[in-house]
Specification:
- The protein is mostly beta strands and 512 residues long.
- The protein has two domains: 406 residues, Beta-galactosidase, Chain A, domain 5 (Distorted Sandwich), CATH 2.70.98; 93 residues, Sandwich (Immunoglobulin-like), CATH 2.60.40.
- The chain contains five helices and 34 strands.
Length: 512
């Protein structure tokens, strides 16, 4: 959740893309002329699980000391100037559909990772070859001589046009990974695991130690990435299947081997950025209409309810838990999709993907947990969301969970009934109370005979109205909150339609 990590990934991606798109990539047939490979060892998923279990019986070892000091103290400018040369990207599949780039350690990427390419039941280590990388100034003087460890990798395929290799996923930094669908730009990130987020003792950031990238068969539509996760609290064996396309899908299968009991743990965690929108526009002197990678948390509950929680940038840390049993899905969504929603010709926030989690199997009881962290900069990931189970994670007891992430403009599952299209908050015309303006997209549903109910946990709701707007198929609801000097109120808005179709429920936490 640091400014450096977000800034760096964007900058590094731009540099590597220029190198990859400016040359003809190697083909699988010519790979023998430029093989950055070392030793070979037997590999299977079972062997990786055994290795993760064995690692959990030993104390955690922080490997950052393996990174030369010159790399750990390297400037952002120098790191950005270290990039894969014309020998990259290297093909993964014999039909030259999938390619990858190995990324170097340095700057904030100070955890070394081992990279292996798997063919059948054999894995071959990827080794650093300095001649295959470009070191522009100031990297030519700041980068140390000798071996430079890897920090991660990128996956590429021609998902937008047949003659261009597009980056569709990147694994780099702790246990972070992110993906995009066709026509999208990187936004929010996923993580392998979240531990002790928001706890007074500080958050623990697990790291991926090793990656085994399986070479796809000819004609395959996916790349399988195996990984071992490690942290002071647990190890884990991960199998992540990445299928790029209009929507890129990542299937995550994981088995944890806890070193200790873990009380605060988050599965399918995301980190995103929310600076401002119509909910807090008056707090920022900015030419743009909105700045965010995600604008809401969407939840499809186990009992079939749809919940929409607009994100906020609060004055102090906010933690919300949405209790559920056997959830059907949740995700951080970028619902505003027009350039006019942002007016940022460089960042293009309207092209950032949404990420939707589809649980596989019975997740039983727990809660979707949302952290909203105060931030004054758009380079800070200040929003975190994940699933926290009620079942305890016990030391020495393996814990398995499986889920699917859809990276796309919208969630694959959306409400059949009306859903929230916009939220605006400001003072009323007398500057005496907070005014809420919520728009619902009503296409296919009658705007007539709609009942609106708004509840608050503190104060009272006054001047509740609803009416159609000049924008077609849009219902506007407005109300004011008389806080009665309270500083926090939980708000819920529900629509009742004449046809009985359930609508998405709007939830919001108002604070002073």
């Amino acid at each position: 959740m640091s400014v450096d990590r977000r800034h760096l990934i964007k900058g590094a991606a731009a540099g590597a893309s220029a190198a990859a798109f400016g040359v003809s990539p190697l083909t699988f047939a010519t790979l023998a002329n430029a093989q950055p490979f070392g030793e070979s060892v037997p590999f299977s998923r079972d062997k990786m699980i055994v290795a993760a279990r064995a690692l959990s019986t030993k104390p955690f070892v922080d490997r950052r000391d393996e990174i030369p000091e010159a790399l750990r103290t390297m400037s952002y400018q120098a790191y950005s100037a270290m990039r894969p040369g014309p020998d990259w990207p290297i093909p993964l599949s014999s039909d030259d559909r999938f390619f990858f780039d190995a990324l170097l350690a340095g700057f904030v990427f100070n955890q070394p990772v081992d990279l292996w390419l798997v063919t059948g039941d054999q894995a071959q280590r990827v080794v650093f070859d300095r001649s295959t990388y470009i070191f522009d100034p100031p990297a030519d003087t700041e980068a140390p001589e000798g071996n430079i460890p890897f920090s991660g990798f990128r996956l590429r395929a021609p998902i937008n046009s047949p003659d261009k290799l597009d980056e569709f996923a990147v694994f780099q930094g702790a246990s972070y990974f992110r993906a995009v669908g066709a026509g999208e730009n990187y936004g929010l990130s996923a993580r392998g695991l979240a531990i002790d987020t928001g706890q007074p003792t500080g958050e623990e950031f697990p790291v991926f130690r090793s990656f085994w990238i399986e070479r796809p068969q000819e004609g395959a539509k996916a790349v399988v990435v195996n990984a071992i996760l490690d942290s002071p609290s647990t190890t884990g064996a991960y199998r992540i299947t990445v299928r790029p396309g209009d929507a890129t899908v990542t299937d995550v299968e994981l088995t944890l081997f806890p070193r200790r009991d873990i009380k605060t743990i988050g599965f399918a965690p995301f980190s995103s950025m929310f600076l401002f929108s119509g909910v807090n526009r008056s707090n920022f002197d900015d030419y743009r209409n909105a700045v965010h990678d995600s604008d809401g948390l969407s939840i499809y509950t186990g009992n079939g309810e749809w919940l929409w929680r607009p994100l906020s940038n609060p004055s102090r840390l906010q933690v919300s838990a949405f209790v559920d049993t056997t959830p059907r899905g949740f995700g951080l969504i970028q619902r505003k999709r027009d350039y006019d929603d942002y007016e940022d010709a460089a960042a293009r926030f309207e092209t950032r993907p949404s990420a939707w989690v589809e649980p596989i199997g019975d997740w039983q009881s727990g809660a979707v947990v949302l952290f909203e962290i105060p931030s004054g900069q758009e380079f800070n990931d200040n929003v975190v969301a994940y699933w926290q189970p009620n079942a305890p994670i016990k030391a020495g007891e393996p814990y398995e969970i499986t889920y699917r992430i859809h990276w796309n403009a919208d969630a694959p599952a959306t409400p059949d009934g009306p859903r929230v299209s916009n939220t605006r908050i400001g003072r009323n015309q007398f500057a005496t109370r907070e005014l809420f303006v919520i728009d619902y997209a009503m296409k296919g549903h009658s705007i007539e005979d709609v009942e609106v109910n708004v509840e608050t946990s503190a104060g009272k709701i006054v001047n509740l109205t609803h009416f159609p707007t000049p924008e077609p198929d849009t219902l506007r609801i407005t109300f004011e909150l008389d806080s009665d000097a309270e500083t926090l109120a939980e708000l819920r808005l529900q629509l009742t339609l004449a046809d009985g179709q359930p609508a998405e429920q709007w939830l919001y936490r108002w604070t002073t």
